[in-house]
């Protein structure tokens, strides 16, 4: 489920996986996610749209959030919030 995001992150300086993790960690709050990532809230909106395009999931839909959170927890490497 996160393969396209991981591929994006390997080719770009912006980590969509980290953005997704922060968004979910902050319970879908655009402003708290922006503050945590030290970016403008519009940047979070842009990245979220890109995440939705690459995953085929809707970040507003609770079931999709749960699926993405589970995928992050199962992904190799540090989990959300475990730098």
Key descriptive features of the protein:
5 helices; single chain; mainly alpha; 83 residues; Arc Repressor Mutant, subunit A
Layout of SSEs?
Layout: H1 3-11, H2 16-25, H3 30-37, H4 41-55, H5 62-74
Helix pairs in contact: 2-3, 2-4, 2-5, 3-4
- Compute the average pLDDT: 92
Q: What is the name of the CATH class?
A: Mainly Alpha
Question: What order do the SSEs take from the amino end to the carboxyl end, as H and E?
Answer: HHHHH
Assign an overall shape. Answer: globular
Helical amount among residues, as a percent range?
A: 55-70%
Structural class: mainly alpha
Span between N and C termini? 21 Å
Oligomer: single chain
What gyration radius follows from the Cα positions, in whole Å? 11 Å
Provide the low-confidence segments as ranges: none
- Domain count, please report it: 1
* CATH topology (level 3) name: Arc Repressor Mutant, subunit A
- Helix count, DSSP H or I runs of 4 or more residues: 5
Query: What is the beta-strand fraction?
Result: under 5%
Instruction: List how many beta strands DSSP finds.
Output: 0
Largest beta-sheet details = none
Query: What is the CATH superfamily?
Result: PucR C-terminal helix-turn-helix domain
Can you name the CATH architecture? Orthogonal Bundle
